[in-house]
């Protein structure tokens, strides 16, 4: 999302779904996992909208949709690519929108070569490192080609923009460009313009290919194509909805890019009933990326600085955005300085780079999977688990639990004694004999946590909206809020270090750590919100809360802990606590809670008006230019400078916001437009191209390259992969499985398996199989089955159901098995069971380091699994039968001549400890 | 069945029993509450459950148990689609049914004809039961092109003519001012007469270890009597995210249901129907009624329930006549013996 549009958040809001004329839900089980928001899909349906669900399984979402399209897990790029092909070939795109609001007319470098030219990789691929040099993907840098027309404004710098960007840091914003004097062809005919590159790239994505790869018939594809194109344009809009069914893949970012391209081509971005709704996994996941729990981000999507390359504030800021590019990211220095002032107050001065040195610097990948592998090497002493249970909820549960057993200490803060807190006495590895309680040196500290009704604070939910929750009751017993816990921990650490003269302790001692406390000693959450919002520090307005991030200054005269949240405490009022009922305000309901940025509910809403500022149609009017008052107005807060007229053209040499034209709606992008083609910012390609998952029963029919050449593989004896496609041994694991959630449980079950009212609704781990597969393998409904991968085997009760259908893809019958992942082995929950996540290996998307947990291959057999050490032998025998080695599945580059020629096994080779 | 056919409009001994005066004239505009002796009661309250928009989230089940303090009802997996609740009972006052059908609604034509091994032999004896397509039942790949998944949240019907209430010997079951039927747990003696009396199999005695709340006592939905008293929506309806469960005045809900049915019929769902709302049905109309997309049996509802005490008046009458006859005979006998 960040790479396509400039911000990493859902572009609209749930209530706006009611305005859609067509809703495509793909990679999401919205009715089950977001049941409250789903009411707006039902509202749209009641108003006549067409609802289409594309998913491997027929779920509770499918049950309420008009159409369910069963698809092979891991093949979505082909499906999306075929829709793009349909739109472009049949000229169904929204021409005026595409021309003005996307980079369709920009010319791409002559050096760019597509995957079809290079047998499955884009230009710039280095088979030794498994990474791209993305410089050849840039916009045209030469001026010896005739420019298309007057739109051509000059040349781009020869220096590639790619060196500035690192994909994993672009979760939240558009990538940097040197500047934006890009050559254009307004006729969209130049063979190297983005539009033509796109057209050629997707020409191979035909209905036949969809049938071959996705198992979807041409009729069904055409039905979807016609539905989305006939429900897009001036008068109508289509919304795309996705969630973790898309993100949990080695090519997950490119899935999302696929829908971004469709929505830009159809002109659905920034408009009511349009956009892409990224549904977040649970209550405040959006909040936990805005004010991140991610290792590589600082608040407000500022990247975490790197050791060596970001030794000064100047170096750091220069990497986020070139001062010559367009858009608001050129204010990165301001946002950074305000954050540093919020954290270190008076200790952050202009003289010391506002204490930039105090920020921790990254030395490499410290994502959750890299961290667990470090644990196994005894590189990590201690670990905090807060509302997270890797023993059940993370991919490859066995690796997680073995990693925890290497720690010296482990702090678990949770509502219940989750499996991550009890693995040392009743985890599965105790049963298999791999771990012995008396040999585990990990000291586990369990702190009971306060639930959300027992503490004040905000949730930032799926639509970027902050909603305040008030403490209703005191937490029971010793239970504490996160805020109280960390405030006290900080106080204790600071007391211990109070006399320290060591420079390394200054960041901790200089922190602003002085929040008012209530009679129970709990710090005020509202004071924290005020600090995040920001405040004027000097001048007439000293002490006055900021009302927008535009008031932030880079000179230390203002402070603010997260620039995108500036305004949530405007006028000293907790805006997130507003609860004006919907019936007392407009349908946009701007006075319910507060949404970032600046309380905008639909992002990029400048695009709801045509280049002249008029609504594309009365029916879809949302934000428009009021020529009498000379400002932007409408139903929402305009996502544009209020007074900048549509006719504005930047003067020569302008940069930053001033360089944005009056018709550049994507104000966070380096060139002000939506990116059909990403010239930089992504590590695995400028356009989505189909690759098979890490484990797949079929060979990639498009080229020799089987899986993503940039995926992150870990060739380890505790992380074997199943063979795929035509490789010998692939037939040992002939089935596809996908993991997911049920309405009745919450993720790894920490909040639901301890609740009898929830536990009884889905008491046992089960697998969903088709009647055809049940007969093939002798599985009996409500009996037992064992599911096996190269990692382990788990047992599950069997649900035989027509909701799972076999598909034909790659010339084979493809049977898919559904596995909800809520259960774990432990002694404390009301219901327990084997964990589906134990079946998964660790293979990651290169951009965001997300694991591929939505698709893998397996075998299934009737009956229960072996117990104790026999389980290890059972799985080892499977590996032997399939001929699995450390190299299996870990070749990054596959070439046509000889399966192994010129290939490299990627990742860090090492044995499991 | 009309009131005339079932003899409901006859005047008889039954009419004089408390709480049932004119009890069978369900068209009474005030609903059943005035008949139970309430003076100027509020309008009758009930549920309209529109199953066509139920997403099967079971929030109603959880909200009901949380509000009413109903205990967990067994941790068994039933292997029956996503339904691990099974049926209404003493510890389950809301139950969401899941029905998987090879009928069109959501199309999932894969265009693939899967070659199948020999199907299992058919059952030896045809019991004449309606076929629901049991999970795992044999079927050809060619039948896989049409599929739908029905979900429906069941609850006590709060009948106009409530047999449970009729048979309760202690007065524990009573008709509230809202026209609903509620058990008073401190009066119920656990006799269990109400259990077989209910034509829908809703009410049951709670089974459990000694010390379990209300063990042995008959239990069922109260339509959140305590919430109604303070003008609050019952917990299940409040929790329903799609407004599949709608709470309100029964008269108004009936109108809403009729409109919704028209819309669905116009949309081509010809099999959609209302269930329970008809004041002329065998229980005089229910306070909680449903919009179904198929026949009631598919959802586990009795197709044409009749209040089990319907025949009581005639039985009383016959018994009375018999008693009078016997008395007369006895009198005659004794009279005859007197010289």
From TrEMBL, chain B:
Needed co-factor(s): [4Fe-4S] cluster
Read off the SUPFAM superfamilies from this record: 4Fe-4S ferredoxins
Q: Identify the main location.
A: other
List residues binding [4Fe-4S] cluster 1.
54, 57, 60, 240
Identify the enzyme class.
oxidoreductase
Q: Which residues bind [4Fe-4S] cluster 2?
A: 64, 221, 224, 236
Q: Where are the residues of the annotated region Disordered?
A: 1-43
Q: What does the record say about how the cofactor binds?
A: Binds 4 [4Fe-4S] clusters per subunit.
**GO biological process terms, semicolon-separated:** cellular respiration; formate oxidation
Ordered alphabetically, the record's keywords are: 4Fe-4S, Iron, Iron-sulfur, Metal-binding, Oxidoreductase, Repeat
Composition bias type Polar residues, residue spans: 1-14
Does Glycoprotein show up as a keyword for this record? no
Cellular component GO terms, alphabetically?
cell envelope
- Residues binding [4Fe-4S] cluster 4 are 168, 188, 191, 194
Q: Which GO terms describe its molecular function?
A: 4 iron, 4 sulfur cluster binding; metal ion binding; oxidoreductase activity
Domain spans labelled 4Fe-4S ferredoxin-type: 45-75, 147-178, 179-208
Q: Which E.C. number(s) belong to this protein?
A: 1.2.1.2
- Entry binding sites for [4Fe-4S] cluster 3: 156, 159, 164, 198
Q: Where in the cell is it found?
A: Cell envelope
What protein name applies here?
Formate dehydrogenase O beta subunit
């Amino acid at each position: 999302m960040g790479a396509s549009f400039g911000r990493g958040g859902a572009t609209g809001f749930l209530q706006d779904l009611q305005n859609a004329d067509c809703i495509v839900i793909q990679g999401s089980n919205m009715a089950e996992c977001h049941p409250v928001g789903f009411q707006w899909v039902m509202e749209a349906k009641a108003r006549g909208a067409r609802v289409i669900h594309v998913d491997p399984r027929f779920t509770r979402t499918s049950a309420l949709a008009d159409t369910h399209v069963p698809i092979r897990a891991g093949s979505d790029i082909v499906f999306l690519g075929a829709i793009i092909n349909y739109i472009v070939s049949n000229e169904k795109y929204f021409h005026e929108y595409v021309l003005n609001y996307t980079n369709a007319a920009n010319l791409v470098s002559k050096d760019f070569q597509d995957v079809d030219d290079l047998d499955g990789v884009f230009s710039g691929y280095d088979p030794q490192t498994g990474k791209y040099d993305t410089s050849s993907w840039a916009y045209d840098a030469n001026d010896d080609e005739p420019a298309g027309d007057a739109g051509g404004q000059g040349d781009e710098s020869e220096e590639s923009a790619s060196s500035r960007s690192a994909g994993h840091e672009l979760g939240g914003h558009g990538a940097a460009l040197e500047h934006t004097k890009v050559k254009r062809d307004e006729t969209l005919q130049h063979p190297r313009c983005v539009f033509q590159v796109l057209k050629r790239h997707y020409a191979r994505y035909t209905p036949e290919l969809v049938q071959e790869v996705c198992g979807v018939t041409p009729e069904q594809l055409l039905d979807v194509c016609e539905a989305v194109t006939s429900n897009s344009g001036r008068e109508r809009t289509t919304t795309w909805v996705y969630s973790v069914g898309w993100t949990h893949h080695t090519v997950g970012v490119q899935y999302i890019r696929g829908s971004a391209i469709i929505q830009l081509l159809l002109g659905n971005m920034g408009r009511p009933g349009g956009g892409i709704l990224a549904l977040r996994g649970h209550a405040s996941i959006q909040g936990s990326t805005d004010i991140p729990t991610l290792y590589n981000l600082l608040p407000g999507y500022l990247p975490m600085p790197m050791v060596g390359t970001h030794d000064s504030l100047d170096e750091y800021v220069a990497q986020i955005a070139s001062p010559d590019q367009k858009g608001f990211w050129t204010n990165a220095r301001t946002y950074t300085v305000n954050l540093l002032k919020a954290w270190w107050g008076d200790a952050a001065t202009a003289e010391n780079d506002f204490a930039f040195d105090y920020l921790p610097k990254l030395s490499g990948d410290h994502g959750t999977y890299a961290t667990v592998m470090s644990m196994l090497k005894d590189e990590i002493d201690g670990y905090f688990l807060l509302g997270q249970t890797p023993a059940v909820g993370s991919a490859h549960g066995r690796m997680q639990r073995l990693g925890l057993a290497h720690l010296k200490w482990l702090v678990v803060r949770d509502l219940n004694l989750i499996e991550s807190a009890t693995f040392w006495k009743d985890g599965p590895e105790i049963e298999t004999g791999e771990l012995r309680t008396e040999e585990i040196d990990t000291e586990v500290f369990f702190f009971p946590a306060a639930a959300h009704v027992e503490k004040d604070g905000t949730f930032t939910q799926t639509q970027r909206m902050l909603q305040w929750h008030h403490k209703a009751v005191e937490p029971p017993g010793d239970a504490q809020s996160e805020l109280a816990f960390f405030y006290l921990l900080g106080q204790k650490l600071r007391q211990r270090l109070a006399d320290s003269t060591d420079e390394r302790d200054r960041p901790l001692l200089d922190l602003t750590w002085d929040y008012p406390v209530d009679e129970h000693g709990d710090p005020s959450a509202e004071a924290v919100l005020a600090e995040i919002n920001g405040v004027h520090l000097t001048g007439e307005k000293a002490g006055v809360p900021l009302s927008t991030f535009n008031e932030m200054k880079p000179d230390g005269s203002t402070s603010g802990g997260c620039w995108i949240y500036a305004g949530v405490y405007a006028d000293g009022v907790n805006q997130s606590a507003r609860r004006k009922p919907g019936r007392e305000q407009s349908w946009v309901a701007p006075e319910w809670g507060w949404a970032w940025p600046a309380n905008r509910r639909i992002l990029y809403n400048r695009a709801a008006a045509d280049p002249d500022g008029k609504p594309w149609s009365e029916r879809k009017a949302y934000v428009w230019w009021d020529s009498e008052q000379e400002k932007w107005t409408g139903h929402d807060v305009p996502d544009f400078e209020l007074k900048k007229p549509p006719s504005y053209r930047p003067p020569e040499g302008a940069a930053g916001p001033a360089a944005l034209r009056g018709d550049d709606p994507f104000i966070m992008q380096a060139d002000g437009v939506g990116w059909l083609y990403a010239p930089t910012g992504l590590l695995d390609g400028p356009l989505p191209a189909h690759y098979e998952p890490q484990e797949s029963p079929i060979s990639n029919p498009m080229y020799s390259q089987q899986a993503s050449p940039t995926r992150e593989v870990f060739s380890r004896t505790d992380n074997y992969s199943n063979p795929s496609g035509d490789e010998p041994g692939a037939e040992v694991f002939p089935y596809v499985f996908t993991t997911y959630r049920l309405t009745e449980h919450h993720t790894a079950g920490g909040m639901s398996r301890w609740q009898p009212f929830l536990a009884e609704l889905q008491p046992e781990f089960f697998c969903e199989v088709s009647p055809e597969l049940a007969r093939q393998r002798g599985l009996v409904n409500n009996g037992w089955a064992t599911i096996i991968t190269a990692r382990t085997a788990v047992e599950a009760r069997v649900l035989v159901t027509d909701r799972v259908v076999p598909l034909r893809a790659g010339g084979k019958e493809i049977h898919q098995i559904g596995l909800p992942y809520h259960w774990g082995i432990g002694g404390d929950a009301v219901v327990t069971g084997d964990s589906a996540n134990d079946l998964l290996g660790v293979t990651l998307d290169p951009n965001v380091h997300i694991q591929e947990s939505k698709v893998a291959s397996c075998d299934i057999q009737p009956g229960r699994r072996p117990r104790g050490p026999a389980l290890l032998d059972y799985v080892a025998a499977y590996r032997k039968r399939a001929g699995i080695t450390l190299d299996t599945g870990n070749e990054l580059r596959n070439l046509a001549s000889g399966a192994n020629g010129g290939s490299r096994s990627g990742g860090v080779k090492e044995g499991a400890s | 069945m009309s009131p005339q056919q079932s003899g409901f409009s006859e005047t008889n001994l039954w009419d004089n029993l408390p709480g049932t005066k004119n009890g069978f004239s369900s068209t009474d505009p005030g609903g059943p509450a005035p008949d139970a002796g309430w003076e100027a009661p509020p309008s009758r309250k009930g549920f309209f459950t529109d199953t066509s928009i139920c997403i099967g989230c079971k929030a109603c089940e959880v909200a009901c148990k949380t509000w009413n303090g109903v205990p967990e009802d067994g941790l068994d997996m039933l292997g029956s689609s996503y339904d691990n609740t099974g049926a209404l009972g003493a510890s389950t006052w809301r139950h969401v049914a899941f029905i998987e059908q090879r009928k069109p609604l959501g199309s999932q034509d894969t265009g693939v004809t899967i070659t199948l091994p020999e199907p299992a032999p058919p059952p030896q004896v045809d019991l004449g039961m309606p076929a629901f397509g049991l999970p795992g039942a044999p079927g050809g790949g060619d039948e896989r092109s049409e599929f739908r998944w029905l979900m429906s949240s069941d609850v006590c019907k709060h009948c106009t003519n409530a047999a449970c209430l009729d048979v309760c010997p202690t007065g524990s079951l009573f008709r509230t001012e809202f026209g609903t039927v509620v058990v008073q747990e401190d009066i119920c003696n656990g006799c269990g007469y109400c259990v077989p009396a209910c034509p829908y199999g809703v009410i049951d005695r709670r089974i459990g270890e000694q010390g379990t709340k209300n063990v042995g006592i008959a239990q069922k939905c109260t339509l959140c009597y305590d919430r109604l008293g303070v003008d609050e929506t019952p917990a299940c309806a409040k929790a329903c995210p799609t407004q599949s469960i709608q709470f309100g005045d029964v008269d108004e809900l009936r109108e809403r249901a009729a409109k919704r049915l028209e819309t669905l019929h116009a949309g081509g769902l010809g099999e959609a129907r209302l269930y329970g709302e008809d004041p002329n049905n065998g229980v005089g109309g229910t306070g909680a009624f449903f919009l179904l997309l198929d026949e009631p049996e598919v959802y586990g509802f009795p197709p044409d329930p009749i209040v089990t005490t319907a025949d009581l008046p005639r039985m009383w009458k016959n018994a009375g006549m018999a008693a009078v006859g016997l008395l007369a005979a006895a009198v005659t006998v004794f009279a005859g013996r007197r010289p």
